[in-house]
Design the sequence.
C-alpha cells in the first residue's frame, strides 16, 4: 500500500511540477494604492487607486497589461506639450523589488498610446512589451511591483505588488490531491 502511495505521490508531484514549468502564459495581478509607496516624495496621501492584470508570455518574453486607475487624470501623467512625463521610462512601469523596498525599473510602459482618459481616471493597455524572462523567478517570489508616477508625486503616487496567478499549477495540484484520495480508497 505504502509503495503504491509513494509512487502516486511522486507521479503527482512530477505532473504538478511539469505543468508549472511548461506554463507559457503566466497571469499576474496587482492592486495599487498610495499606502504601498515607499518613502513617497509627496507626503500628502493620495486617494487614487488601481487594478492591473498582466499576462507574461514566457515563450516570447513579452507581457500584456490592462490597468484601470481611478483618481488620476491623463493631465497628471503628461507634460503640457502632450508628451508623457518621466522620459523613456514613462510614468507607469514594473520595478524589481519586494514590498517595502524600492527597486530599479525593469519593464517600462512608456508610449502615450498606451494611456487613455476614462470617466474616473485613466486606462493603460499595452501588448507585446518585451521583458527579461529571468524576471519570472522574481514574479513568483513576490519581487516585482507596478508603480504609477504623476507630476505631483514624482517618486510614485500609487504602487502595487504583482502576484502570480498560475492556473496550470493549481490544476496540477488538484489532480495530485484527487489521485491521493483515490489511492487511499483502494
Sequence:
Amino acid at each position: 500500500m505504502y509503495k503504491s502511495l509513494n509512487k502516486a505521490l511522486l507521479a503527482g508531484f512530477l505532473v504538478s511540477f511539469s505543468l508549472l514549468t511548461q506554463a507559457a502564459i503566466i497571469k499576474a495581478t496587482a492592486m495599487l494604492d498610495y499606502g504601498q509607496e515607499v518613502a513617497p516624495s509627496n507626503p500628502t496621501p493620495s486617494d487614487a487607486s488601481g487594478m492591473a492584470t498582466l499576462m507574461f508570455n514566457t515563450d516570447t518574453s513579452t507581457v500584456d497589461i490592462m490597468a484601470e486607475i481611478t483618481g488620476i487624470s491623463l493631465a497628471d501623467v503628461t507634460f503640457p506639450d502632450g508628451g508623457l512625463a518621466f522620459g523613456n521610462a514613462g510614468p507607469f512601469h514594473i520595478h524589481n523589488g519586494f514590498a517595502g523596498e524600492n527597486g530599479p525599473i525593469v519593464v517600462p510602459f512608456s508610449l502615450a498610446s498606451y494611456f487613455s482618459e476614462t470617466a474616473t481616471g485613466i486606462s493603460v493597455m499595452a501588448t507585446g512589451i518585451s521583458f527579461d524572462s529571468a524576471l519570472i523567478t522574481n514574479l513568483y517570489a513576490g519581487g516585482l511591483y507596478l508603480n504609477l508616477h504623476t507630476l505631483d508625486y514624482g517618486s510614485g503616487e500609487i504602487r502595487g505588488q504583482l502576484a502570480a496567478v498560475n492556473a496550470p499549477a493549481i490544476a496540477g495540484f488538484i489532480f495530485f490531491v484527487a489521485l491521493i484520495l483515490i489511492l487511499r480508497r483502494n
Summary: Residues 24-165 form a domain with the Immunoglobulin-like fold (CATH 2.60.40).
